[in-house]
Write a structure and sequence with these properties.
The structure holds two protein chains of two kinds.
Chain A: H1 8-16, H2 21-33, H3 35-39, H4 45-59, H5 66-73, H6 78-84, H7 88-111, H8 116-128, H9 131-138, H10 149-153, H11 160-184, H12 191-194, H13 196-209, H14 215-236, H15 240-247, H16 249-268
Chain B: H1 10-18, H2 22-41, H3 47-64, H4 75-92, H5 114-126, H6 129-135, H7 138-149, H8 154-161, H9 165-183
Helix pairs in contact in B: 1-2, 2-3, 3-4, 4-8, 7-8, 7-9, 8-9
The chains are: A mainly alpha, B mainly alpha.
Keywords (chain A): Membrane, Transcription, Transcription regulation, Transmembrane, Transmembrane helix
Domain Putative zinc-finger (chain A): 10-38
Transmembrane segments (chain A): 92-112, 118-142, 163-184, 190-210, 242-268
Chain lengths: 279, 184
């Protein structure tokens, strides 16, 4: 029976749907078993390449990395995950820089542990650690840091939501790294956590201030204020009292209250986020 | 893994696809997309759904080429089984499901129906089966087609035709009885 094949006329009728149902079934059954008859079906090449390009794109779609899977495990929606993991080019240089700075601080503190230098270094860690997340936030959005800003700014997701999502992601990473460094640092145990509330205040403060100023300007202002204030305090009181003044319980309460106030300002004025345009 | 060409057999192509060669997938797609499309279009009037089912099929082939059992199945029949099931699952979704569905419906080795061709062809070309099938009412004939020719289960056939499974079972029974009467 293999001498029976589909001829051009029959094939044409099949493709136009003019065949009796039973004969169409016969054509299909034969086609499945006979490669030459299968290939005799005419295919529109434009359609074929178009169809193939979709398959190709899908086959070459980037695979979800470990970070992507972790975020998905945490229950974030897919588009947020894409947003948080979409800029791998900048991520590594920034991570490496922060790790290096903190690593050097910890290493130097251990080397100089015996002398007075260790205390100075530990103190400078406490002072600088709150500024790190702020630096990270200042680069999270806006024209100087983000080369894609012109394009980002035209998308519907631009604005407060995007600033906050990016800020949260960089603050999260910076805080984790600084906390690790704080634990590794020699000195009293509370060193490891004493900088957290100042950092919280500086971050929310920066974001709150960004409703009035450009983000980098806001970050520079608050970071500068913090450094200037702490340095001024170190001029007035020396040694152990200095630490208890700047990082003691009273001061911590003050930081918390200020951070709450900043968060309130941020929520009230969230619609007025500076979107990187110069005012 | 030797490079593949236009002359490679389907089984060679599938082996190359399992080894991660995109060129082999392209050759397989260009070789089979045409007849799959012609055949799927007789079962679904929406060309977009048919195109998506074909794309879905080859994405599934890319992921599951290693599950193709060379010894027991014919590549074309395997492809058809995947394609028609993809069409069914595309029609089943609340909105049409496009790419990236779970590949759960790829059979380990396709239930090829080696007797189907001979049975239908012999019967239609030389026997009484052709007229009998033509005299069957369309909804009964479509069920026979979906189960005997397309290799679908009754449940899948019901989904393809958009009828409840129970209805499909009754109709299939009626179709068989009627065929028997007509052939007697």
């Amino acid at each position: 029976m293999n001498d029976w094949h589909i001829d051009a006329g029959l094939l044409g009728e099949y493709e136009r749907g003019e065949l009796d149902p039973s004969r169409a079934m016969a054509v299909e059954a034969h086609m499945q078993a006979c490669p030459p008859c299968r290939s005799s079906i005419r295919v529109d090449f434009t359609w074929l390449t178009g169809n193939w390009s979709v398959v190709y794109d899908h086959v070459h779609a980037p695979k979800a990395g470990p970070g992507h899977r972790l975020l998905r495990r945490l229950g974030l929606p897919e588009h947020r995950i894409r947003l948080l993991t979409a800029t791998p080019a900048l991520r590594w240089s920034w991570l490496a820089a922060t790790v290096t700075v903190l690593g050097l601080a910890v290493a130097a503190a251990w080397l100089l542990r015996s002398g007075a230098g260790g205390a100075v270094l530990a103190t400078s860690f406490l002072i600088l650690a709150p500024v790190l997340p702020v630096v990270a936030v200042s680069g999270a959005y806006g024209p100087p840091a983000d080369p894609m800003h012109e394009i980002t700014g035209t998308t519907p997701s631009a604005g407060p939501a995007l600033v906050l999502w990016r800020a949260i992601s960089v603050i999260g990473v910076a805080m984790t790294m600084a906390a690790t460094a704080g634990v590794l640092l020699p000195g009293p145990g509370w060193f490891a956590v004493a900088w957290l509330l100042p950092a919280l205040l500086l971050c929310t403060g920066t974001l709150a201030l960004a409703t009035a100023l450009a983000l980098p300007v806001a970050a520079a202002t608050l970071g500068g204020l913090w450094l200037a204030g702490v340095l001024a305090a170190s001029r007035l009181v020396h040694g152990e009292p200095f630490l208890s003044v700047v990082f003691g319980p009273t001061a911590q309460l003050g930081y918390l209250a200020a951070a709450v106030a900043a968060a309130a300002v941020l929520i009230l004025r969230r619609r007025r986020f500076d979107l990187g345009a110069s005012r | 893994m030797p490079p593949v060409s236009e002359q490679s057999s389907d089984a060679d192509l599938l082996r190359a696809i399992a080894a991660g060669q995109t060129a082999a997938l392209r050759l397989l797609h260009h070789r089979h997309a045409g007849w799959l499309r012609a055949r799927l279009r007789r079962r679904c009037a929406d060309p977009d759904v048919v195109d998506a089912a074909i794309q879905d099929t080859f994405v599934a082939v890319w992921k599951d080429a290693h599950r193709f059992a060379e010894t027991t199945a014919d590549p074309a029949a395997w492809l058809w089984t995947i394609a028609v099931r993809r069409l069914v699952s595309a029609l089943r979704g609340p909105a049409h499901r496009w790419l990236s569905g779970p590949a759960a419906d790829v059979p380990d080795d396709a239930r090829t129906v080696p007797s189907a061709e001979e049975l239908v062809l012999l019967g239609v070309e030389h026997g009484a089966l052709g007229p009998a099938l033509d005299r069957l009412s369309p909804e009964l004939r479509r069920l026979i087609e979906a189960t005997a020719l397309d290799g679908l289960t009754v449940r899948e056939a019901a989904q393809l035709l958009g009828i409840p499974e129970g209805t499909a079972k009754t109709r299939l029974m009626r179709a068989r009885t009627r065929l028997r009467q007509l052939l007697a």
